[in-house]
Amino acid sequence: MLAVSGTNTSPEMGMPKNSILLNCFGRGGSSLLWNAIGSSPAVLLPEKEWHQGVFGDQHLFRKAMSHLANFSEIGWIPGVHGMCHRGMRAAIPEKEFLDKPSASFVVIKLMDRQLAFREIIKRNFSLTREIVLTRHPIPMCEGLMRSGHSVESAAKWYRSATRHMLAALRDCAALAVSFESLVENPKEVLKKTYGWLGIPTPRDECVQVKEKGYGAARSSDADMATGRFIRVPLDRLSEMFDSTVNQKAAGRLSGFQREALWALTGSLASELGYTREV
User: Fold this and answer.
1) Which of the residues 18, 37, 41, 169 has the least number of beta carbons within 10 Å of its own beta carbon?
2) What is the model's pTM?
């Protein structure tokens, strides 16, 4: 895909006219991919996830708007587009603009229930390139269950997000990236992603990575948008991940739970290329 050259900002908002939209689950490698894309000099990286930048600590309002957006078109509501755009702009630290004066994109991480806002976000930009980050439903739902979800509610969460991901893959030439490939060979996947987006790799060949708990260490529904960041060379990224993380997650479930989860999610997961085996 061809790169977009030169500074391409919106004078009235100070925002790039172009966006990269990362459609993802909340705990499926999204932090790594989001920060890696935002490590490119051509891309502005918000310091908050989209829903935090737009809704802040108004949790009930966010849930209400997400629920409404999942069932109807809300772009007609006065002020919705402006609210979304202002929130995105406020989430980008001024240092990003100073450090990347020629940035032509902003990368937006849109996950779980907030995927319903995908079309509204795209209308605020001249060009949007989309990435769909997938994960096998059994380990994905296992993480949700450790945060208190039942088998049924975890599966419902997975189905809801997956429907939006499939819509993105159908509606546009989105790039599909799997959590499994990202964990197994992060350098190769990131290089492919940079090339597909038409953006340069980070100048120092390092990406910003958030230190946080993975696998069994992730036992609560904590806010993962905070924490210490470190810069890791692309060549050393694979050292940070356990390639058996999916198998270990599945192993924490009973056979009955695994079968129930696949029965509830398998038809949609199959459209993403997954089979019953983890």
Assistant:
1) 41
2) 0.84
